[in-house]
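Format notes (please read before filing issues)

Several people have asked whether sequences and C-alpha cells are stored in separate files. They are not. Every record keeps both together, in the order shown below: the sequence lines, then the C-alpha cell lines. Line labels are part of the format and must not be stripped during preprocessing.
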Amino acid sequence: MREMPMCGIVGYIGDRNAVDVILDGLKRLEYRGYDSLGVAAFKDNKGYWWKDPGNFASVEFKIRKKVKKGDRGIGHTRWATHGKPSHQNAHPHFSCCEKFAIVHNGIIENHRDLRRRLSASGHKFRSETDSEVIAHLIEEHYQGSLLEAVRAAVAQLEGSYAIAVCHQDSDGLVAARNMSPLVIGVGENEYLAASDVPAILPYTKRVIYLADGQVAHLRREGIRLYGQTGSDEVSFEISTVEWEQEHAEKAGYPHFMLKEIYEQPEALKNTVESLIEVKSLDVRLPHLEVAEEFFKQLNKVYFVACGTAYHAGIVGRYALATLAPVRVSCDVASEFRYTPPYIDDKTLVVAISQSGETADTLAAVAEAKRRGARVITICNATGSSIVRNTDGVLYTRAGPEIGVASTKAYTTQLAVVVILATHIAQVCGHIDAAKREEILGWLLKIPELAKQTLEDDSVILEVADAFLSTTTFLYIGRRFNYATAFEGALKLKEISYIHAEGYGAGEMKHGPIALVQADYPTVAIATHGLVHEKMVSNIQEIKARGGPVIALTNPQDEETRELVDYVIEVPEVPEMLSPILNVIPLQLLAYHIALKKGLNVDQPRNLAKSVTVE
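Then the structure lines:
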C-alpha cells in the first residue's frame, strides 16, 4: 500500500437542500487536501450530479449550476491515489445503470482482481480508480435493498474504506467504514455522514463514531447500524461534541494556522488543567485504564508516532528517561513493526496521534497489543479509532486543528508527555514530592508564558525578510530541544517549501558543518539548560566559518546575544518544558516566510491533515 492523505466525504439526508449542506461540509474539510470535487443529489427518484478536477471555488460554481436540489446526496473532495486528477477519476462514481452513486476514502487493495471479475461479468468501467469497483459490486449484489447490497459488497473488499452510497430509487443513504474515519451526525429528522466533525457541526453536535466493519443505514425516520454480516442490529452510543462551530472557523484570522498558533495559550491551559488539579497539584488521569500497579513493574516504554507527533514522543522519551530509571525509546510508527520490538506483558506503548486515525500508528498499536503490551494513547479526537483500540487515553484539549501544519496539537502533546512521565516517576517512587510539584507547578504557568511568547514577533518578521530568498536552513538543538530542531525544520519545509534540516548540534562536526557558508543560515535553539554551554560552542563553530545564526535564547543571555546575528527571546522555564515555548517562534517564522512567498499556508502542496492509509 502507498502512503497517501485522506479525502473528504459528506453525505446528507433530511429536509434541507442536500446540495447546500454537502458543499458547506466539503468546504469545511478543505484542509484535508483535494485535487477534484464532486456532488450527487437525489430527489423524487431522479439524480443530479457534477464532478471535476480543480480548485474548490471553480468546481463549486459548476456544481451549483448543474446540481440544484436534492433531499439526500453525497459529496467528495479527492486526493489522488489511483489515477490522475480528471473528470473520470473524480468522485462520485457510478454503476453501469448510473442509479448507484458512491464516494470513497481509502485504498481497496484487491481492486484489480475485483475489476477483472466484474469486467468479465459485463460491467463497464469509466475511471482508473480503485473506488469505482465499489459501485459495480453494489450493483452486482442489489436485489431491492440498498443496505444489503452494500453489506454484501463491503464484505468482499480488502483494504481501507469509508464510503457513502445513494441509490436513485431508495429513500435512504448507507455509510460504512473500515480503517478510515467516518462519523454520523444525528439531527432532528436529518442525518449526516462525514470524514470529520467540522463538516457536521453547523447542523448538530450529536454524533456517532462508526467502528471498523460497521454499516449505517440513514433514513429520515432514524438510523440503524449493522455489521458486515448477520441480521442483528448493532447498538450505538450518541456522543456530544464538546467544541463549538466557531472553533472550526478562522475567527478573523487570515489563516487557520495563524489562528491556531495564537490559540496555544488557551489550548495548553485546557489541557494542563484537565490533567492537573490546580490547588493540590495531583495528577488526574480519568480515561486511563492502566492500573498504577502496572507502572510499578514496567521494564520498557515505547513512544510511537508519525511526523510532528513523533517529535513529541522524542521529548517524552527524554522526560521519562530523566525522571525514572526505565528503558525507554521513541520509534517512528511506520517502522515500529518491521524491526521486531522487544515487548512483553511488562511493556507500555504510548501512541501519539492528533487525529487518532493515522494508519501507521494504528498498525503499531495492533502489533504492540498482539505481542502483549499495554497500550495507551495521547490523542486530540474523542471517539477516534486509536482511542477505541487502546487501554486508555490522555486527551489533549486543543480543540479542532484545521491547519495542515500542526501547531497547538503539538504543544499540548508536549505538555501531556511531561505529565505522563512525571506521573509514572511518582508512582514508581523515583522522584520526591518537591520535584514533582516543581514540574507540575511550572506546567500550570506555561499557558501564560506561551501568551508572553506570542506578544512580540518583530524579530521574527525581520528574520523572515532577511532570509526570504534562502534555499536551505539548518536547525540545531540538543537534549530536550533536539526534537525542537526537527519540528522547526519540518514546519518550514511543510509550508514554505524551503529545504530545512533538523540536526543534533553535537553532530555538526560529523558532516553538516561542511555546508556552513554565508548564505546558509542556522537556527540554534540555545535556551538555558544542562547543555547550554555546549550549544554556545556549536554556535561559535558556525560563526567561525562565516555562517549566519538566528538564536532562540532566554532574556539576559548576553553570551549568546554577542555571538549571533539575530536573537529571538523566549521566557526561561525548566529545560524539560522549554520545547513547549521554543517551538512557538519557529512556527511563526515558518508562517511568515511562507506568507511572504505568497503560498497557501493552510493547504501546502502534496499534503493533507491526516494520513489514513499506509
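For reference, the curators noted about this record: The first strand starts at residue 8 and ends at 13. The chain has 19 helices and 24 strands.
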